[in-house]
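Anti-sigma factor
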Amino acid sequence: MVDAAATAASGGAPQTPKLSELMLAMDVVDTLRHHEGLVARELGGDARDDALKARLRQIYEDQGLEVSDRILEEGIQALKESRFVYTPSPPSFGRTMAGLWIRRGRVAVAIVAILAIVAALIGWQAWTRHTQRQATEQAQIELSDTLPRALSVAADAARGEARVPEAETAIAGLVTDGQAALARGDAAAAKDAIAKLGDLRSRLNQQYVLRVVSRPGEDTGVFRVPEINPAGQNYYLIVEAVAPDGQVLSLPIVNEETGTTDTVTKWGARVSEAVFDAVKRDKLDDGIVQNNKLGEKRRGALEMDFLTPVLGMITKW
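Structure:
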């Protein structure tokens, strides 16, 4: 580089430094920066610039380069003045906007991603509100229209099968339960009452004869010794429910020994010793129980009508 003041004093116009000299001065500054320890010792202490120039000259001579004193001085001075050093401008709105413009591609992708996320969130919230509104409306329709009609239909169907006062009373009780559930907005309880009316109708619609089993290889009767009374005996006739078309039905039977309800096609009906002995004699006569009817379940009735008292039942023996 050329000192402008020196050029003016010599009577000539300022000259622009040659590119090779400028590049060389920049290289000197770069060399100084890469030898920070050298700079700290020579410039940070009491050593003179001449000692530093000598060191720099030696570095370049080792590389086979010859550098003039003027270039070395220019480099040292440039380092002192922090020339050839990029100093970023202070933060400002303009700097921020310029940075965004430079990175506009990545910024655009980020903005699109953010907008997509925002749109998805808005859509999800709208869908959630719509779904909740639909569910609320559906629940209101169900409580105000669907379930009341279903309850009425189920009750009418059950009443159409009822033939005894007990059945009418049971139906009325279930209808009351269903209406109370609807009044308090309890759809589950209302549905339960409707289901029970359907079960009651099916039960009323059933008809069958309770027949004592007397087939070869199958038990006709058994007796048990109660655990609480080892000296006593309980007598059971093995029975089955036969529909008018001859089909043997599966029925839920409460086992008096365990308290559980089992759905079975055969079970033991506890009778008196006298009835048990009468059936035993009937079978021993010709191997067939002639008087094999123990009871009957008529259509429209809730319970079986027994021809002889039945004191309990078992499902396993």
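The radius of gyration is 54 Å.
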